Amino acid sequence: MTLDEAYRHIKKCKQADAQPVKCGRWENEHLENDVWWADCSNCKNETHSRFGRVSSYAFCPNCGARMDGDSECQ
Ligand SMILES: [Zn+2]
Prior knowledge:
It is built from 1 helix and 3 strands, in the order αβββ. By secondary structure, it is of the alpha+beta class. It has one domain (3-56). A 3-stranded antiparallel beta sheet has the order 1-2-3, with no helix packed on it. A hairpin with a 5-residue loop joins strand 2 (35-40) and strand 3 (46-49). The longest helix has 15 residues, at 3-17. The two termini are 36 Å apart. Zinc ion binds next to loops. The site of zinc ion (ZN) has 9 residues, from loops.
């Protein structure tokens, strides 16, 4: 195996390991009876938080989508 082939092999393995990044946004965030509610735009599930805004969550607890507006999110 040449060095070039080895490099290509390593690159392939890395790509296979990488999980696709799911991304979403919190929608319709509102306060109801001292509880914050918001909908995930990715899985459409409603999430609530008694300790601060749902929009402070970096991930959706239901589907794991990133909510931080990271550059990995297209
Ligand atoms: Zn979700």
